[in-house]
Each structure stands twice: as structure tokens, then as C-alpha cells.
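Task card 7
Instruction: Convert sequence to C-alpha cells.
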Amino acid sequence: MTHMRNVVRSLALPLLVAAALCPSCMLHAQSTYQVINQWKIGGDGFWDYMAVDPAAHRLYITHGMKVDVVDTNSGKVVGQVTGLHGIHGVALDPDGKLGYISDGGGNAVVVFDRSNLSTVATIPAGTNPDAILYEPATHTVWAFNGRSHDATVIDTSTRKVVATIALPGKPEFAQADGKGNVYGNIEDKNEIVHLDAHTKKLVDTWPIGCESPSGLSLDNDQHRLFSVCDGKKMAITDAETGKQLGTAAIGDGPDAAAFDARNKVAFASCGEGVLSVVNAAESGYNTVQNVETQRGARTMAYDPENDRIYLVTAQFGPRPAATAENPHPRPALVPGSFTVIVVGRK
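Output:
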């Protein structure tokens, strides 16, 4: 037995040394992501952000004029929130009771009951609310309005707007650290804003080293922000100082970012049809994998409970000819082809 223990120790020691000297090498060896499932959802219309409820095993997908609610165990649609006007995002309260939808076409935030998916309130916001989040330190919901360039802050106990905060440009995705700090990408200025949820004021504006930042994720332990941008770049920012820490190479056409705190990797979902995986455990921010997904799969949600990434896309038909009124037309969608792509590690 002593001999066997010595053999085990002799085998384990090089692995421990390798992990200490090159954690990214160990990460790469252990973290091969791949598409493990696809769920055909169907239905018409384009899509935007998603939100996952790990405890309830539900995925909320903004899809045209409704929210599709998918059971992440079965991959089946279990319900819908309807009566909406062109939606962008969903925020969930930590109590498991209510959800909040940024209804861009209705210039409102719609509150719904997660037990039966019924609408319980409609709260006026700014023009075209897009990204939306729940801020736990102040029990507020923040809707970032793409056309009026401001943020609407809603008290969840009264369901009343308690502040409207002017922003320096067009907001995209945002994150909260749970301590009262809110961060958001400003797409047309290539900046991140830092907002104080307690005072409901803009604290700082930080330039970042990439163009048109859209998706944003947060490493709360190391205070790092990950902005996905045009030009196949992810910018990494210190969330305490605003200092630029580096960039990572990602796929083309990203729109969402996510962060896995357990494995210290950042994700970028890219419209060209790849999910980029970036090692956030080291300052080099090396891209360790580009997982082939499907064209158009540029938004996602990360489920920390089962270490799964959910992306959505559809099959596309030919792109219409450009016109003066619509110089960048979207291609037509193949009816019934809307699909959730599930990425994980085996």
C-alpha cells in the first residue's frame, strides 16, 4: 500500500505543478465545450436577450411579441407571456415570484407572475427599453432605454418609477454587482458607465478599447467587466478603477456575453456561428476555444447550476434588396425553424 501511495503521489505531483505554472493549459485540457442538444421551439419573429432561472429549470426567451418559457430539463415550451409589443430582455427577482420584461415597442416595463405567466403591471419607461436588470441591494429594476439614452429605475415594492438617469449615448447590456454598483455598455460612444444604485446617479464614464460594445458580463470576485464588441474583440475592464486590462479575440458579430465564476471563463456568442471561450483566470485572456454553433446564434444565457450555455437562432432565407428606407434589411426567417442550441462539456 505504501508503494501504491507513492506511485499516486508521483503521478499527481506533475499535474499539480502544471496547474500552478499554467492554469490555462489545465483549463483547456478540461474544458472542451460542444453542442450537446438542440430544441426546436418554432414560432415567428426575431429574438433578443434571454434569462435563465436555474432553481426553477426555466429559460425565458424574448421572441418577437412574446416571451417563450422553456423547461431546461425537457427542452419543451411550457408557457408564454403574450400581449407585448416587440421585446428585448427579461429580469428576474431573487424570490422566484416576478419577472420584468423590457417591452421596447410599448416603451414600458411589463411585470409578470412567474407562477402563471400572467401580466400584473405595466410601467411606463423611456423610449425603447432594451437591456433590463434586477438590482438586489436596492430592490429596484433598471431598464436601459436605447432611443431616449437614459435608464429608468423602478421601485419593485411600489412598482413606480423613482428615477430617470441620463446617459451619454445609446445603452446596450448592463450588469449589477449586488452591492449597489451598476455597469452598462454605451454602444455609440465605446464606453462603459458606472452608476450608483443607492444615489441613482452616474458616477463614472470609462472609454474601452473596442468598437460598438454590446454584451457585458461581470466577474464579481475579481471585479472584471467583459464587453463584447465589433472587430472580433472582447474588452476587459477593471470594474473598480475603469482601467483597461486587455482584449481577447472572439468571433464576428457578437451580441451577448456571460461569465462562469466556477471555471473562470468568459463567453461571447457570435453571429457568425461560434461561441468564443476566454480564459479569465490569467491576465493574458487567451481564447481557449471557438465552439461551432449556428449562424445567427448571437444571444445567450449561462446556467451555472448545470454548466450549460443556451443560445438561440433560426434558419435564414435570402436577404431582401436594400432600399433607401431600409438600407440593411434582415434576411427572411424560415418559418418554424427557431431553435435553442445547448452547449456544455462532456
